[in-house]
Write a structure and sequence with these properties.
binds beta-D-ribofuranose; 13 helices; alpha/beta; binds calcium ion; two-stranded antiparallel sheet; Inosine-uridine Nucleoside N-ribohydrolase, Chain A
Length: 309
């Protein structure tokens, strides 16, 4: 089975690991990468995407930059998690290939328009580009083969007690996206925190040689803090969203209605989830086969590592 996938992202440690998965899985055809300001500013997320494209070796895939700011708010970032440049301690060679001249939103529209029903759209950053694309062309909601986000949660936040970072960063965009005429596949914190890169996983990844030394392990361990309760290892949130497209069999899903809190004093950015809705607008991942997930991810990373030697 081959899946065409367009990744909208803010690399970002785990976005970079998600990009590696999308590039490396032979069942996934990566058709574009769009960037948004989020974990760090747009200049950094775009530079990182361009550098990753050349380092990993998918020069034919367009990279298009999008929104540097949320729709209406001041930008927030997560540089304290991802490092000032967004990729922790990883330093990659400067890119030489050009950025697409299109805005990310237009690239998304044109890519989905060109192949209706064929391209799976995945968003692993704030939802600003997707909201702009929906406002410019609502039909993308029909054209996308599926739409999956890493974002939100139904129990807790990480950026605040109530809100997950990607939703908090641009709640107005998230509201537009969840209110659009499609089913949002929500891979939230409740799911991603089940599949942390613990020491057993990291030891196995270390066996992948130079790719692991230079990229995978530094990305997967940069902000791990063993003193944080419930942290067995660093979460690789965005990897789970890409994995869902190719391996939905690894996930347990429940239909739900998700509304976005945009005005709460303490709850702005919260995904308010009703698992017994009259009209569902989302499919929420509740459980992941952790061993199956890591076996899949490791096998894909191993293919990329082998192809580089
Ligand atoms: C999400 O926020 C970002 O920091 C990560 O890249 C991920 O997309 C986790 O809350
Ligand atoms: Ca991200």
């Amino acid at each position: 089975m081959a899946y065409s996938l367009l990744l909208d992202c803010d690399p970002g440690l785990d976005d970079a690991l998600a990009l590696l998965l999308a590039h490396g899985d032979p069942d996934i055809q990566l058709v574009g990468v769009t960037t948004v300001g989020g974990n760090v500013g747009l200049a950094h997320t775009t530079r990182n995407a361009l550098q990753l494209r050349e380092y990993l070796g998918f020069p034919e895939v367009p990279v298009a930059a999008g929104a540097s700011q949320p729709l209406t708010r001041e930008a927030v970032n997560a540089a304290h998690v991802h490092g000032e440049g967004g990729l922790g301690n990883v330093t990659l060679p400067e890119a030489t290939l050009p950025l697409s001249e299109q805005h990310a939103a237009d690239f998304i529209i044109e890519t989905l328009r060109a192949s209706p029903g064929a391209v799976h759209l995945v968003a692993t950053g704030p939802l600003t580009n997707i909201a702009i694309a929906l406002e410019r062309e609502p039909a993308i909601a029909r054209w996308a083969a599926s739409f999956t986000i890493m974002g939100g949660s139904y129990t807790r936040g990480n950026a605040t007690p109530a809100a997950e970072f990607n939703i908090l960063a641009d709640p107005e965009a998230a509201k537009i996206v969840f209110d659009a005429d499609w089913q949002v596949v929500m891979i939230g914190l409740d799911l991603t925190l089940q599949a942390q890169a613990n020491s057993i996983v990291v030891d196995r990844l270390k066996a992948l040689g130079a790719l692991a030394d230079e990229l995978i392990v530094p990305l997967a361990t940069f902000y791990f803090n063993p003193k944080v309760p419930d942290w067995d290892g660093q979460a690789v949130h965005d990897v789970c969203a890409v994995a869902y497209v190719a391996r939905p069999d690894l996930f347990s899903m429940r239909p739900a209605r998700v509304d976005i809190e945009t005005r709460g004093e303490f709850t702005t950015g919260m995904t308010v989830v009703d698992f017994d809705p009259l009209v569902p607008n989302a499919l929420i991942a509740t459980k992941i086969d952790v061993n199956g997930f890591w076996a899949y991810v490791e096998s894909v990373y191993a293919k990329v590592a082998a192809a580089r030697t």
